[in-house]
Design brief:
With 205 residues, the protein is an alpha+beta fold. It has 5 helices and 8 strands. Belongs to the acetyltransferase family. RimJ subfamily. Keywords: Acyltransferase, Transferase.
């Protein structure tokens, strides 16, 4: 099976969209991250002690993400929200990383969102968009999401989309300064019907 290398790709469902991160997003990205520092801190991935500082500028980060996407290693999107006025703004990120081909064909989804739009179905819709693309275009067989047991908001996201719980992985990922336990959730392509993950969301999304 030929590896999918289609990038850049943008996806849209109602007011919620996914598109590649751009160098011109720098001010908006830093503004959203700063405004949501306390909101995202408990769930932010961190570097274990002794890890060299990457020294990446924002522009270098964008270039690295784009290179990884073009090589088929990840799908790094920003999440956008379009106001009734038609103005679209950056409100988060969704990345499907660690994409593996061959006999595995899996990837892992991670995300964060601006607290200002929390509760509007933004993350479930973004994950459904990205997941449907991963299954139908990239032809992944398995999509995983690892969530800290204390993260009730994120647990609701996978519940809404019908991800299957696979148990606890102790000290799985370095988050907020320490190795943290994570609950693992997954879906296989054959578990998703033709309506896709978007079809699992309420019609008004």
């Amino acid at each position: 099976m030929r590896r999918a290398r289609r990038w850049p790709v943008s996806l849209q469902h109602g007011p919620i969209g996914l598109r590649p991160l751009r160098a011109t997003d720098e001010d908006a990205w830093y503004a959203v991250r700063a405004r949501n520092a306390a909101w995202t801190l408990p769930w932010d991935a961190t570097r274990p002690p002794g890890t060299p500082d990457s020294g990446l500028t924002f522009r270098r980060m964008v270039r690295r993400l784009d290179a990884d996407a073009r090589a088929g290693r990840s799908l790094p999107w920003v999440i956008t929200w379009t106001e009734p006025s038609g103005v679209s703004r950056l409100v988060g990120q969704l990345t499907i990383s660690g994409i593996t081909y061959g006999s595995a064909r899996w990837g892992m989804a991670g995300y964060w969102v601006d607290r200002d739009v929390a509760g509007r179905g933004v993350v479930p819709t973004a994950l459904a968009l990205g997941g449907d693309h991963a299954f139908t275009v990239v032809k992944l067989h398995r999509l995983e999401v690892a969530i800290r047991p204390e993260n009730a908001n994120s647990l609701r996201v996978v519940e809404k989309l019908g991800f299957r719980a696979e148990g606890l992985r102790p000290a799985y990922m370095h988050v907020n300064g320490a190795w943290r336990d994570h609950l693992m959730f997954a879906l296989h392509a054959e578990e998703v019907d033709p309506a896709g993950l978007l079809g699992r969301l309420p019609a008004d999304r």
